[in-house]
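Attaching the record inline, Q. Sequence:
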Amino acid sequence: MDMAETVPATGWRARLDLEFERRGTRSVLAKRRHDGPLLVQKSLYPEGEGICHALVVHPPAGIAGGDDLALQAALGAGAHAVLATPGAGKWYRSSGPGACQRIRFDLAAGALLEWLPQETILFNGAIADISSSIHLGRGARYLGWDILCFGRTGAGERWMQGRCKLRAHLEVEGIPVFIERADLEGGSAIFNSPAAMAGAPVCGTLLAVSAECDAALLSACRALQPANGEGAVTRLPGVLVARYLGASSEAAKNYFIQLRRLLRPAIMGREAGDLRIWST
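Structure, as predicted:
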């Protein structure tokens, strides 16, 4: 049975649907619908009216067993949006029921989306089902990352109990170009396997999608390395995939920020200033 089917009715149910449109020179958050504790408070324009920034806020701050969260964002032709989160996603220990988070992004022709969340932390004993599905139309461009911490590493905690199902799906013009699935058990041998986590508690993936993701950009990205841990970048047709593996979520985020400073001008035509939320 899929974990999403086992979630009882006692947890939080939260839905957030966003629609961005291009209106003349402006990108605007045209519609937003939320049900439960998942929302955006206001649109921000720190880079001017062409790029709409929005912070996705989950007021309970943590995800407990039985919670079910869904975020959907649809971007109309030519719209440019930046979505971020103000704090780490904390998945608490569960005595039995699992929690679920589903993300889906749909980009129409020529739309641009950046998804820049803080890290996801799985507390020891957490049971999580986390999925993302990204669909790009012709000429759409995407830059986003996810950072996953198995255990509260700052407190010396290891993820020895629990379960985590991960699913990622990326389509460009209806063609799947990146699919990844994992089903991990806390304390299992995969966390020490050199073919997987190699003893590291933190991993991360960055995806950049654009026709500009060529061999020269790949070479420039490979010249960057994280302050600690390991980083690697590879290329699929029109897609760059960067990985982090190490012991520090901060090192992972800083590595991806460095990569964004290279990638954003190349694929989106804009300089990559840091988000204000990263320094608060």
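The mean pLDDT is 93. The two ends are 41 Å apart (CA to CA).

More tomorrow.
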